[in-house]
Amino acid sequence: MCITDKLVSNLIEELNCDTVFTIPLFGGISISESVVVTWIIIAAMTIASICLVRNLKVENPGKKQLLLETAISGIYKFFEETIGEHGKRYIPYLITIMLYLGVANLIGLIGFKPPTKDLTVTAAMAFMSIVLIEYAGIHQKGVKNWLKSFAQPVAIIAPINILEVVIRPLSLCMRLFGNVLGAFVVMELIKLLIPVFIPVVFSAYFDIFDGLIQAFVFVFLTALFIKEATE
Amino acid sequence: MFVALGAGIAVLTGLGAGIGIGIATGKAADAIARQPEAEGKISKALLLGAALAEATAIYGFVIALLIILLLK
């Protein structure tokens, strides 16, 4: 009983997002841990991208530039297939989200608390996704046709189509959050059971592989929905 | 006691997800064996299907967790 109590209290502690500090503006804006970790990720990734794109040349490019070009054009090609002809302009956003989620899921390895374990972060990501999806639909079809598209293929299906606007972000949000939290809980249980060596093997799967797959799946689904909205 | 039982029942959603992903992976292996050149497209579809099927298990897990944490 003692172990389960410890686990439950540990879980509650991990589920809560601690407030790091409060900005004394408008009656106090509390800044939670996930926001601070996100700032760290933003800073690290900005510095990394500045370092990577410095000294790019058109003639005889260096090894670094060749690697970068291969990676970016590969990702572009992959997304172009998924998102279709009309969605090309959203690819940079999708790549940004993928990089952020990938880093956010892996940051637990170096001792930070992953921001994706905070439900509000994944909810915000999902909200941004659905706004982008609907915007893409409006941009492509115009307001009138976008409204009409809710009643397609038959008018009777309209309530389900409207429900989908809510269900899609909910499912995106819960999938990411549940996966990261689930991996964390399983890892905690394994660590409780066998603290030596075995967690390393499982950590490679749950922390690294699963984190990257989920980042990819989130972006992939968003791309698919955008394709559907712009068709 | 009943809280733990409820959480256990909620986690049974994993059953469906496991069967679904198993079938999908089996069919994908079949398809790749038939047409090895279409592997890229097949694995893309498999990944999407697996992610969608897995979501049900994740929902069950989240519900179980909420039951334990909120009803305790």
Describe this structure in words.
The complex is a heterodimer of chains A (231) and B (72). With 231 residues, chain A is mainly alpha-helical. Chain A has helices at residues 2-15, 33-53, 63-83, 91-106, 119-141, 143-148, 158-193, 198-230; strands at residues 19-23, 29-32. In chain A, strand 1 and strand 2 form a beta hairpin. In chain A, helix 4 packs antiparallel against helix 8, helix 5 runs antiparallel to helix 7 and helix 7 packs antiparallel against helix 8. Chain A is globular, with a radius of gyration of 21 Å. The model of chain A has no long low-confidence stretch (mean pLDDT 84). Chain B is mainly alpha-helical. Helix content of chain B is 90%, strand content 0%. The N and C termini of chain B lie close together (10 Å). The mean pLDDT of chain B is 87. Chains A and B meet through helix 1, helix 7 and helix 8 of A and helix 3 of B.
Give a quick rundown of the structure:
Chain A has 231 residues and is mostly helical.
Record keyword descriptors for this entry:
heterodimer, A: 231 residues, mainly alpha, two-stranded antiparallel ribbon, 8 helices, 74% helix, globular, B: 72 residues, F1FO ATP Synthase, 3 helices, 90% helix, elongated
- Number of individual domains of chain A: 1
Strand order of the largest sheet of chain A: 1-2
Report the radius of gyration of chain A as a whole number of Å: 21 Å
* Series of secondary-structure elements of chain B, N-terminal to C-terminal: HHH
Main sheet record of chain A: 2 strands, antiparallel
Count of DSSP helices of chain A?
8
Class by alpha and beta content of chain A: mainly alpha
Helix content of chain A: over 70%
Q: Give start-end ranges of low-pLDDT stretches of chain A.
A: none
Q: What is the CA-based Rg of chain B, rounded?
A: 17 Å
Number of DSSP strand runs of chain A? 2
- What's the overall average pLDDT of chain B, rounded? 87
- The succession of helices and strands of chain A, N to C, reads HEEHHHHHHH
Average residue-wise pLDDT of chain A: 84
- Give the chain pair forming the largest contact, with residue counts: A-B, 20 and 14 residues
Query: Are there runs of chain B of 5+ residues with pLDDT below 50, and where?
Result: none
User: What CATH first level of chain B would be assigned?
Assistant: Mainly Alpha
**Major pleated sheet of chain B:** none
